[in-house]
Amino acid sequence: MAYNVEKLTKLKALKQLAERIEADFATKKELGELSGRVDDLVTLGGEPNVITAVKVNGAAQTVTDKAVDIAVPVKVSDLTNDSGYQTEAQVSAAVAAADHLRRRKVESAAAIDPAAADAERFIYMVPKDGGDSGDKFDEYMVIDGAVEKVGDWAVDLSGYVLKEEGKGLSANDYTAGEKAKLAGVAEGATKVEAGAVSGSVRINGVETAVVDIASDEEVTEMLAEVFSSQAG
Questions:
Q1: Ramachandran sector of residue 221 (left: φ over 0; alpha: ψ -120 to 50; beta: rest)
Q2: Which of 28-42, 57-71, 213-227 has the lowest mean pLDDT?
Q3: What is d(CA 32, CA 38) in angstroms, rounded to the nearest whole number?
Q4: Is residue 90 part of a domain?
Q5: Domain tally for the chain?
Q6: 51 assigned to some structural domain
């Protein structure tokens, strides 16, 4: 050290030391009070940096070396299935077991056994004799224990009128009387125009009265008659 520890010091220096100790350091009393408060916190479970319990949904977890390993599900199968979700295997099994229709080729309708356990699960394809391209099979199903034909591409055109050149219709579909009535209608008979005279229309060029409208003179006469009688 560079100074002599045997030298005497001034009272001023001692005062500065005392003031610094008072400002920077706690007293014995203050330390005692602080120690009591720490003890109270520990008693109430407030020991710092120590995990005493970790719970997941109310279940206490094991604490090892101040650490807790919480398992987090990473796939649906890790969860409790309380919503009825189905796995891929379950869906495939349900589809395979479903009562859906399939096709089955048979030589004839007589070869279909309606009493078979799975008879109603098939559409039976029976070859046609001389069927057209795209229509080589008749379709049958077993419905309520009976064999029923359910499909046919054939179209019955019997009763339809064949097209004839120059005709919109190939037959007279209305009566002779109706035809004569239509022929007797004058040219332009459906043409109606406003008439040249008030209260009339012009039909086929002929002025035809529709309503009878009073003239100005008739109106004047009526008013005079009414008001003259009231004045008397």
A1: alpha
A2: 213-227
A3: 10
A4: no
A5: 3
A6: yes
Compute the distance between CA of residue 199 and CA of residue 25 in angstroms, rounded to an integer: 123
DSSP strand E in 5-108: where?
54-56, 59-61, 63-64, 67-68, 102-105
Query: Quick one: pLDDT band at residue 1, thresholds 50, 70, 90?
Result: very low
Full-model pTM: 0.31
How many Å apart are CA 191 and CA 198, to the nearest integer?
A: 19
The 10s digit of each residue's pLDDT in 6-55 is: 666 677 777 877 888 888 888 888 889 888 888 887 777 666 666 667 88
Of 96, 78, 76, nearest to 87 by C-alpha is: 76
Contacts of 147 (CB under 8 A, 6+ apart): 109, 112, 114, 124, 140, 141
For residue 139, count other CB atoms closer than 10 A to its CB: 15
Q: How confident is the prediction for the chain on average, in pLDDT? A: 78
Per-residue pLDDT at 170: 47
Last residue of a domain, one of 134, 151, 168: 151
Task: Copy the structure tokens of residue 37.
Answer: 């408060």
Rounded Cα distance between 169 and 210, Å, is 41
In a domain? residue 85: no
Cα separation, 142 vs 117, whole angstroms:
11
> Does 127 reside within a domain?
yes
**Domain ranges, residue 123:** 102-151
